[in-house]
Amino acid sequence: MHLVLLSIFTSLSLTSEAAEYRYHFCSNQTTFSPNSTYQSNLNNLLSFLSTNSTRETGFYNTTVGQTQTPENTVYGLFLCRGDLATIECQDCVSTSTKEIVQLYCPEEKEAVIWYDECMLRYSNRSFFSIMEDEPSKILWNLLDITEPNRFIQLAAKTLSDLVPLAAANASSGAKRFGTKETKFTDSQTLYNLVQCLPDLSSFDCNRCLRAAITNLSKSFGGKRGGRVLNPSCNVRYEVFAFYLVQAVPAPGPGPKGKISTVIAIVIGVTIAASVVLVTLLYCFRRRKARKKSDAINELNSEKSDSILNYHATREITSVESLQFDFGTIEAATNKFSDDNKIGEGGFGEVYKGVLPEGKEIAVKRFSMKSLQGLEEFKNEVVLIAKLQHKNLVRLLGYGIEGDEKLLVYEFMPNKSLDNFIFDSKRRSQLDWKTYYNIICGIARGLLYLHEDSRLKIIHRDLKPSNVLLDHDMVAKISDFGMARIFSENQNIANTKRVVGTYGYMAPEYAMEGAFSVKSDVFSFGVILLEIISGKRSSGFYLTEHSQTLLAYAWRLWCEDKVLEFVDNFMMESCSTSEIVKCIHIGLLCVEENPQDRPTMSTVVVMLGSESVALPEPKHPAFSVAKFMPMDEISVNDLTFSTIVPQ
Ligand SMILES: *[C@@H]1O[C@H](CO)[C@@H](O)[C@H](O)[C@H]1NC(C)=O
Ligand SMILES: *[C@@H]1O[C@H](CO)[C@@H](O)[C@H](O)[C@H]1NC(C)=O
Ligand SMILES: *[C@@H]1O[C@H](CO)[C@@H](O)[C@H](O)[C@H]1NC(C)=O
Ligand SMILES: *[C@@H]1O[C@H](CO)[C@@H](O)[C@H](O)[C@H]1NC(C)=O
Ligand SMILES: *[C@@H]1O[C@H](CO)[C@@H](O)[C@H](O)[C@H]1NC(C)=O
Ligand SMILES: *[C@@H]1O[C@H](CO)[C@@H](O)[C@H](O)[C@H]1NC(C)=O
Ligand SMILES: *[C@@H]1O[C@H](CO)[C@@H](O)[C@H](O)[C@H]1NC(C)=O
């Protein structure tokens, strides 16, 4: 098996990851009227919470209206997951303060909302420092685990071990948070997290977490991931790293200081990057391991460096031609000033720059020492620079000085696709034709990676935030941080280390680590359906409609009501036949069996032709029946008879 892990240095996230919504609760018993004092107090509260989310503690509580309008007082707080960098916390809080009133609880006085990254809560009564474990919600991963009994015992024990750590009497403002990894099998690691509100007493935190763990164990039905959400504490376990794996769990205040050590870096990265980081650390360790012993090659048995060098030396005449003068880049970015910073990723920051001749660039800056040899770095840069296609973001070159390594990309003024499709306002700024062109662009970019470039490349992490948009809204696939190169006659590979983003991952990859061009096709299908519906696919967890996006699309397809899937605003500007065709293609791409999914070349043909007859889609992966969470079963109107807890 010949695979090459492309350089982590090429990962480019111009935008931080959007928050992943999970659940909310707001009682319609107490509501306020539009334009009331309560509403304006609430709006102030939400903006205070949002502006205070830069705090390092990842927590803030405040009250609005107590003196002027006592009967309309609003109390509120947010809590970010303990491992997040402030910028990510800020992102989540800012998203949640908007979405809660716009999408979920427009007129309720009391509300709580959970995202993967943070929780936001407000009420017209004071709830600070009070332990409240209701409303409580259990969410399950949709996939099953082998040896469930041993598994839940291990999970419950590990989570329980974390309780004293999180509940420890710490100084005020300290995080009440703990994470721990344990081996379930040789190839499966169990990741565990517990967290309380920091304003709880040690006693209450302890009580809340223990009850949550008990609840989780009691209703355990063999799922490989699960979590309890309630207003005071939360616990979660998974078999993938859903938080940043830290060198030291942090029950106390998070480490402060500059990004200068690996630990600091570990703390300062985005969720998406965390997965990249795991890959990085993993590769890093592998590189080291390989130096020690060539025999240690248990994972993919790839000879990555040799293939890489082979391609690089054969095809590139001058590495130096891609090298930028460090000083030029420094000047272009105003000495990497904060004003020029446009993003932050796992390996450093991204800056906007303007070259002397006026060309705008995006510069990714890495400050870690010797993560990779200079030659390797150059070779990999050259390799990526060779990938040139209208629908791939273009690497212009690199810069090196001392330990600093820079990558220079063309600048994408319109950021990424997720900024449009999941934002209620910006979404409607584009018309169907533009979205259609974006869809076609992604398809062509992917086709190039899969078939048309000289290498066969599997992206492995295709999602809207990795699709950047240029001046003309042309889609450019970015972030090849997890990409793999296949040799010409290789079709499938296996990895024990599943990286990528749940929600866009094909089932065979998420479950068995098997990836191929068809796993990218799956991700493409998910994006297509997201663009059309304006809704996020949350992968193995359920969306607000108590079903996944794919299941929802499939149900409407089967009931011949597929136009209901289309976002209202889009109906106004679209051609019905085109949009139905796109949904059809989307469903073909997300079919359960990878062999049934079309290749990207077929997809491009389908998209480009009005007359081509499409096969009937089969049942998509992750159908409703398979991923109904345990506690959701009784309240749903779908076909329960087919639910088979596996
Ligand atoms: C509140 O929600 C419940 C359940 O969703 C619904 O039956 C009830 O009519 C709602 N009450 C009001 C006042 O909207
Ligand atoms: C609330 O205020 C907005 C803007 O001031 C106005 O357009 C809207 O009609 C008002 N709504 C109600 C119910 O008074
Ligand atoms: C934080 O919240 C307080 C109110 O609790 C508010 O006065 C302040 O402006 C907010 N913003 C910052 C940056 O502190
Ligand atoms: C925050 O909560 C504490 C109790 O945990 C309370 O004493 C304090 O007044 C709250 N702060 C604000 C601004 O409401
Ligand atoms: C919150 O509002 C509800 C109804 O709007 C009211 O019945 C309740 O007394 C209020 N709670 C407090 C503590 O003011
Ligand atoms: C935490 O503080 C309380 C009260 O100050 C004390 O009774 C308790 O023993 C402390 N617990 C720990 C684990 O230090
Ligand atoms: C445990 O489950 C019960 C019943 O659903 C619920 O009332 C309680 O709040 C849950 N406890 C926690 C800590 O989530």
UniProtKB/TrEMBL annotation:
One of its GO terms (molecular function) is protein serine/threonine kinase activity. It is a single-pass membrane protein. One of its GO terms (cellular component) is plasma membrane. Residues 336-622 form the Protein kinase domain. Residues 1-18 form the signal peptide. Keywords: ATP-binding, Glycoprotein, Kinase, Membrane, Nucleotide-binding, Receptor, Repeat, Serine/threonine-protein kinase, Signal, Transferase, Transmembrane, Transmembrane helix. This is Cysteine-rich receptor-like protein kinase 10. It comes from Quercus lobata (Valley oak).
